[in-house]
Design goal:
This protein is mostly helical. It is elongated. About 3% of the residues have low confidence.
Length: 332
C-alpha cells in the first residue's frame, strides 16, 4: 500500500490534483462504508456514515464540474496559465486606461445607456487608440479561453469591450458583444438593458426595434424588486419609447404613465415627457401633447428633438400655432 500512496510533493499539475481528489473520495467513502458495516453502537452511527458517503459523491461531482468550467483556465498547465493570466491582466489594464480616458473626455463608461455618448467625430485620438488596443487584448483573451473551453472568461472579456463600444457610440459592435456575454450570463438584467439601448440606437428598423423590445422585457423581468423607483422608471420609459417606434401606442402609453409615476430624476422625467408627447401626437390628442410639451420648457435639447421630428411623430402639429409657440425659436 505504501507504494500506492499519493506523495504530495509529486502533485505539481492541476489535473493531478483532480485525480488525487478522486482517489481521496474513493478512500473516504470506502472507510465510511466499511465502518458502517462493522459498528453496531451507537445505533444511529452506521446510518449517518452511509448518508455521509452518499452525500460526498454529488458534492465532489459539483466541485469537479466547477473546476472544469468556471475555473478551467486555472486547471491547465503552468505554461498555458502563465500566458493566459498575462493576457487577461493586459486586457484589464487597457480597460482601466480606456475608462480613465473616457472619463477625462466627459463620458462615464459605467453609464452605458447615456443619451449622449462620444461620437466618432469628437472622440479624442487617444480614446480611439485605447479602444483599438482593448479590441486586440480582448481578442487574445477570448482566443486563449476558447482553447480550453472557458466560456465565462470569454464572456467577461466581451462585456469589457461592449462597454467601450457603448461609450464610443459603436452600437452594432456593442450589441454583438453583449450578446456574447448574455449567452453565458443570461440573467444579467443590466446587460439586457444595455443591449436594448444599443439595438435601438442602431436605427436599423423594425427588426432591431423588436430585438430591443425583447431585451427590455428581459431586463424588466430579471430586475425584479432589486432596483429603485428611478431605475424602474427608466426601464419603463425606454420600453415605452421602443413601443412608440413600433406603433404600439396603447402599450407605449401604459409603460410611459407608469414611468412618469415612478420617475424623480430630471433626466428621466423629461425623457418620459418627450415620449408621451410623441405618443399623444401620433394619436392626435392635442391637449395632452401641449401638456407634455409644457413639461419640457426647461429642456431645450428635447425641444430641439421634437423639432427634428416635425415630419413624423409631430407632423400633425407642425402648423399648430400654440404648439409652435411652445417650441419657441427651436423651429427656426
Amino acid at each position: 500500500m505504501a507504494n500506492e500512496s499519493i506523495s504530495p510533493e509529486k502533485v505539481t499539475r492541476p489535473y493531478q490534483l483532480l485525480a488525487a481528489s478522486f482517489v481521496a473520495l474513493m478512500a473516504i467513502d470506502t472507510a465510511f462504508l466499511t465502518a458502517a458495516g462493522l459498528l453496531k453502537v451507537p445505533s444511529w452511527l452506521p446510518a449517518l456514515l452511509v448518508i455521509a458517503a452518499v452525500a460526498n459523491v454529488p458534492i465532489f461531482l459539483i466541485s469537479a464540474i466547477l473546476l472544469q468550467t468556471r475555473f478551467r483556465p486555472e486547471m491547465q498547465d503552468d505554461a498555458f496559465y502563465s500566458t493566459y493570466i498575462h493576457q487577461k491582466q493586459e486586457a484589464d489594464g487597457v480597460a482601466i486606461k480606456l475608462q480613465t480616458a473616457l472619463t477625462e473626455a466627459g463620458v462615464d463608461i459605467q453609464a452605458l445607456v447615456s443619451r449622449n455618448p462620444l461620437t466618432h467625430s469628437v472622440m479624442p485620438i487617444e480614446v480611439r487608440e485605447l479602444l483599438g488596443d482593448l479590441e486586440v487584448a480582448v481578442t487574445k483573451v477570448q482566443t486563449e479561453a476558447a482553447k480550453v473551453g472557458a466560456p465565462k472568461e470569454s464572456a467577461y472579456a466581451a462585456y469589457e469591450l461592449a462597454a467601450g463600444y457603448m461609450a464610443a457610440g459603436e452600437w452594432q459592435k456593442a450589441a454583438a458583444k453583449y450578446l456574447e456575454y448574455l449567452h453565458v450570463t443570461p440573467t444579467d438584467w443590466e446587460a439586457h438593458f444595455a443591449r436594448g439601448v444599443a439595438l435601438v440606437n442602431t436605427r436599423m428598423g423594425t427588426a432591431s426595434d423588436l430585438a430591443a423590445l425583447r431585451e427590455y422585457n428581459d431586463a424588466i423581468a430579471l430586475a425584479g424588486e432589486s432596483i429603485d423607483g428611478d431605475v424602474r422608471a427608466k426601464l419603463m420609459t425606454y420600453r415605452g419609447s421602443v413601443l412608440k417606434r413600433l406603433g404600439r401606442l396603447d402599450e407605449a402609453e401604459s409603460d410611459l404613465l407608469l414611468g412618469q409615476k415612478l420617475a424623480t430624476s430630471v433626466e428621466i422625467v423629461v425623457d418620459n415627457a418627450y415620449n408621451r408627447a410623441a405618443v399623444y401626437a401620433m394619436r392626435g390628442e392635442r391637449m395632452k401633447v401641449l401638456d407634455s410639451l409644457r413639461e419640457l420648457q426647461k429642456a431645450p435639447d428635447y425641444l430641439a428633438l421634437i423639432h427634428s421630428h416635425l415630419n413624423d411623430y409631430f407632423r400633425e402639429f407642425s402648423n399648430d400655432k400654440e404648439f409652435i409657440s411652445l417650441l419657441g425659436a427651436r423651429r427656426a
